[in-house]
Structures are given as structure tokens and as C-alpha cells.
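Sample 1 of the test manifest.
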Amino acid sequence: MSARLGVVSVVQAMIYDLRSRIFDGEIPPGTPLGEVDMAAHYGVARPTAKAALENLVASGLLTRNAHQSARVTVLDSADARDIYQTRAIIEAEAVRLLASTGHVPQAAHEANAQITALADASPAQIIEPDLKFHAALVNALDSARTSAIYAQLSDEIRLCMTHVQDATLLSTENIAAEHQRLLDQINSRDAQGAASTLADHLGRASKKLEAHLDLIQQNGK
Amino acid sequence: MSARLGVVSVVQAMIYDLRSRIFDGEIPPGTPLGEVDMAAHYGVARPTAKAALENLVASGLLTRNAHQSARVTVLDSADARDIYQTRAIIEAEAVRLLASTGHVPQAAHEANAQITALADASPAQIIEPDLKFHAALVNALDSARTSAIYAQLSDEIRLCMTHVQDATLLSTENIAAEHQRLLDQINSRDAQGAASTLADHLGRASKKLEAHLDLIQQNGK
DNA sequence: AGGTCAATATTGTCTAACAAGTACACATGC
DNA sequence: GCATGTGTACTTGTTAGACAATATTGACCT
């Protein structure tokens, strides 16, 4: 009787819904999520809520110390730096491999076209297609485990974005232009150049993000 | 009253013990691990055993379909290829970054010395220091998330080894020599050369592993 | 004001039970 | 003999309630 699409178990449904609420900013970083509260909110037993929370803790979205309520993970500038360093490692090698064959993923093209189309939209709407663009580069490697690792990393990147919500990190045109340059370099089999462009692109974004998080932490304190 | 070192919870103790038994080959791939059986074996409640099994499923050591007993994951040649491709991506960028500064991690040196010392030992004893060598390269990047990802990947590499147990995949001297060459290239800041050496090193190991797994699968069928 | 201690709240784990789904074996029909 | 269908047994999924262990918080005392 349960729906075949989307949800197969109660726990998975809870995980999916909590993820959405966290990414949408409905549950801001630092919010405590007690097991009993969650169980009551979703009308499930405590062990079920516990399982869902533990899953989210494992994926990094929630943080928990022993005998304390799980909280939505609060990221500082050091975390952002680490996250961007990690994604840079994976993406750098990805673009090198793609450049070695000159194959430009169709999905990356399409994602960048979406970004260009959103030229004057609100900054927050750029996040999704931007993530899609970068994920397309990694997914083009056709490695299930690499894609899975990057997907998990994407969750933490998304979580970063909820911290800075309204701030425009980079102008839309610049992002789209840099992406296009990256694709061109891949297409012309310039591995070293593509890796360099990507490193600059991510390094710049990381620096802005780190500065912003430092600012927030200072204000909050 | 609980020991501060090693184990903090019953679930974690179960996870630790099961991991050891799987890596030691005591529980070979394909073995079904029912929740009730595990609960009885460890003298814990079923929900506790369930939590431990779910953790191992998440880390890839166990595989489970809905309403079926979890089994120790059986890897085929395609899995081995994917695992080695994934580690190659991370390690390749790692050695490139290390070569850009010319910094050779001390831990990598020590691990390779261990391998050299084991020249005429049983092949299985080479696995641990070899994993330590490669992990040292990644850990030298000083990125918590990158190290965590690689640690998880190391578990699957270990699981690969349990499939081929007694077979000598590569001679000890060759491995140590290739490792040394890699360290020399990092030291001389030859990023491209180091990446190339690593790709060859892993590619060769992957091919041997894939062939072996194909052979096993054919015999088992 | 600072430190100690107790009350509180939360998680960690267990027992017991029912519901739901899958796999296997058996019987049946062709 | 073989394919098909059915039913049973086994396993997991989820719930409920309870007790133990621990971290936090506030009150109390010095």
C-alpha cells in the first residue's frame, strides 16, 4: 500500500523531509532536534526518529555528542575551507580526466545554460544549477562510488549555503563565464589549464564563503 | 565506568568486532548476518544489533535488500575497478598537491620501510603497511573530510583483499620500489611524473585484482 | 562570587509484541 | 515432467513502554 516512488520506509521518509527542511532554511543551523520531539512531530516511535537522526548525523547534516540532543550542524570558516578543499581535489582530477579525452558532459552544458538564463533572478536560485553543473563533471567519470562521495559532499555544500542565505557570493555572469571557460578547456584537451581554472574558481568561492562565515560568527558572538 | 578507550557504546563495540571479523576473513563474503542471530551471538537486543548492521550496510561492508538478511558484501571485478578508480582520483590529486610543495610525508616513508622489511613474509602481511602508505599520502593533505572519505574507501579496499586472501598480487620488492619512486618524484616536485607513476601503480594492481575476481566468480559458478 | 550538589531532561538500551514483506517448498493442474 | 499458484515460515519494520546512565542546569551553600 505504500507508495513505490520516493518513500519506502518511515525512516527514509523522515530523513527526506528533514533534509528538505534543513536545506530550505526552515530549520536553521544550531537548532536542537530531540528524539522525543521529532517522534512527536512526525507521529512515529522514538526508535524510528532515532534511526533517522542517526542517519543525518552520519551524513554530517546533524551533529551530536553522547547524551545530548542532535543539532543542525553549525559550520565555521574552517569547515568551509575543508569542504571546498575536498571538493577541489575530486573535481580537479575529474576535469583532468575529462580533458584527457576532450569529452564535455552534456549535463554540464545544460546546467550552465540554466545559470545563464537566471541572470537577474535572486541569488539563491543559482545554487541548485551551480551544484548540478559541478556534479555533472564528477558524474561524467561514470564511477558509482565517486559520484556517491560527491553527492554526500554536495549535502555539506548545500548546508554551507543555508548559513549565508541571502548574500550574493559571486555574480551570475562571472560564474557562468568561468564555467564556460572550463568546458572550453576540457574540449580543447587542456588538462592543466582546466585544472587551474577550476582551482581558481573554487578557491575564489571558498575565500568569499570563509570571510562571510567569519563575519557571521563574530556578529553572533 | 565504561572504558574511555575504544568503545563507548554497545553498538560501536559490535561494529568494531564485526569489522574485525570480516577483515580477518572469519566471516567470508556472502555470509548472511541476521539481526536475531547477531543479537543472540553478542547477547544484545535486536534493535541494538539492527543499529550495528545498518551502520555496516551504510559503510558498504554489508549489503541488504528490504526484508532480507544483511550479507557480507560480495565484490565483483566491476566493483574492484570502481573502487580503484575512485581511490586513483583522490590519490592522484593528493600526490600532485604534495609534489607542488615537494613535501614528502614522514608517515609514508615509515610505511614503505615496513614493506621493505617484510620482504619474505607472507603476502597477506603486506596489505596493512601498503594501506598505511597510501593513507599517509592522503592524510598529508591535512583535510579532515578527505581523510574520512579515504578511510571509508580503505574499508572497501580491505574487503577486496579478503576475496583474494592468499594470492600474491604483486611482489613485495616491486611495490616498495614503485612507492619509493613516487616519493622521489614528489620530493623533486615532478607533479606530472608522480601522478603518472601512481596511475600506473594503481592501474596494474586493479587489473590483477579484477582478473582474480573474475576467476573466482567463474569457479564459484 | 564561586564551587558543590541535586534535580531534570535526554539519550542508550532492553523487553515484548505485532505488522508486513519475501523466499521457499509444497501441492496442484496441465 | 514441468510450470504455476498458494501457503507457510522466516526475516525485517515498527511500535510501545520501561529502566539505566549521563550531561546540563539551576539552586544552594560557603
